[in-house]
Write a structure and sequence with these properties.
With about 150 residues, the chain is mainly alpha-helical. The chain is built from five helices and no strands.
Length: about 150
């Protein structure tokens, strides 16, 4: 079982680093003006709508991502064996990371399109939430221990 925990641990770390690299690439693309800078006029309706979408996604998406992971990795543990529990942990880690990645990337792209500080702030908040998701072998082992205790 330790082999599977190590494998899952490595995969989850690689995925979080990949999210950070995608956000860094988005920033580089924005700085190189591949993502057009300032296309949306300041103080316009388009900027307001874009800011609203990014802020709502951040305010709703981050707690939702963290809560979905908690609910779906603690609910129904009695009917799972260790292999199923690891698969569930992996799937819900991916869902959580996907929501956070989408939030961060949308915030970065919106920042360059509208040059709005609130969008980049939302992206930074989402990236800080990925630090909370950094895997550890002890977290995975504790999760499996709770599966075995149920």
């Amino acid at each position: 079982m330790e082999k599977y925990i190590d494998k899952l641990f490595r995969i989850l770390r690689i995925k979080i680093v990949a999210v950070w690299l995608m956000v860094a690439i988005a920033v580089v693309l924005g700085e190189m003006n591949i993502i057009p800078n300032g296309v949306i006029a300041p103080h316009s309706g388009g900027e307001f709508k874009l800011n609203t979408v990014v802020i709502l996604l951040t305010v709703i998406g981050i707690p939702l991502a963290l809560r979905l992971f908690t609910l779906n990795t603690t609910k129904g543990l009695r009917r799972m064996n260790n292999e199923e529990a690891l698969k569930s942990y992996h799937v819900w880690s991916d869902v959580r990371l996907g929501i956070l990645c989408l939030t961060a990337l949308l915030g970065i792209v919106a920042y360059y399109l509208a040059v709005s500080i609130s969008c980049v702030f939302c992206a930074l908040v989402a990236m800080c939430a990925t630090l909370y998701c950094w895997p550890s072998k002890s977290k995975i082992a504790n999760y499996l221990e709770s599966v075995n205790n149920e």
